[in-house]
Amino acid sequence: MIGKDKPEKTCAGNTLYPARIQQIQALRPKQQVTHIRSSVWLMVGYPRHVWSYDFVSDRTHDGRAYRTLNIIDEYTRECLAIRVGRSLKTEGVQSYLTELFCTRGVPVHIRSDNGSEFANRAMRTWLAELGVKTLFIEPGSPWENGYIESFNGKLRDELLNSEIFYTLEGAKIILEQWRIQYNTVRPHSSIGHRPPAPQAVAPPVPIPPLISASTSITTLQLDQ
């Protein structure tokens, strides 16, 4: 075919034929994958195996925006924290995670989307130094982060869509109350229609019977 073997000139003036170009391209190393398709390659197996976190945006009564940082344990389905702020940056996320790591332990993996607060170099380096492996979903594929997406939907349907917050402090209080109720009371069909972290109820302490005054006097006289 005419033009099939037409040579090409390189910047250095050397002649390359199409067959040689294909050989060179075959020798080039393939690009490394920079993230893991977490929902396909990793399934949760025990508590603190995989945590996931994400943001949910809303507005207070005055129209000002705020965001919640939601963090859950994918195995137990427990909501570990809901943090509220007008602007939550990487430093704030690190601060909240540090608090959780100190009180709940360090997870093996943490799953998120590719948002700048989660996927920036400083955040990935910080987590790696603590021994936490990051799992990033494919861009534009929220279904790969199904646990946290399901939680976000419940939060919006059960609270945010029906509640008006006049202040940020009021939002923090009500959201924390909802989180406690979600963990300790609300049944979850995915874990046998029980709450993720039911409150432990201590058995009642037995109360000794009351001793009347006459019984006490009689007993005292007998002892004498």
Question: Describe it for me?
Answer:
By secondary structure, this protein is α/β, with parallel strands linked by helices. It has a domain of 151 residues: Nucleotidyltransferase, domain 5 (2-Layer Sandwich). It contains eight helices and seven strands; from the N terminus they run ββααβββαβααβααα. Strands 5-4-3-6-7 form a five-stranded mixed beta sheet, with helices on both faces. A two-stranded antiparallel sheet has the order 1-2. A hairpin with a 5-residue loop joins strand 3 and strand 4. The longest helix is centred in the last third of the chain and has 17 residues.
Number of strands: 7
Distinct helical segment count: 8
Low-confidence parts: 28-40, 215-220
Which architecture of one domain does the CATH hierarchy give at level 2?
2-Layer Sandwich
Q: Which percent range describes the beta-strand content? A: 15-25%
Task: Please report the distance between the alpha carbons of the first and last residues.
Answer: 127 Å
CATH superfamily of one domain: Ribonuclease H-like superfamily/Ribonuclease H
Q: How confident is the prediction overall: mean pLDDT?
A: 79
State the secondary-structure class.
alpha/beta
Morphology: globular
What assembly state would you assign to the polypeptide chains in this entry? single chain
List the secondary-structure elements in sequence, H or E.
EEHHEEEHEHHEHHH
Lateral strand order in the biggest sheet: 5-4-3-6-7
Which CATH first-tier class of one domain would you pick? Alpha Beta
Largest sheet: 5 strands, mixed
CATH topology (fold) name of one domain: Nucleotidyltransferase, domain 5
Calculate Rg over CA atoms.
30 Å
- Helix content, binned percent: 25-40%
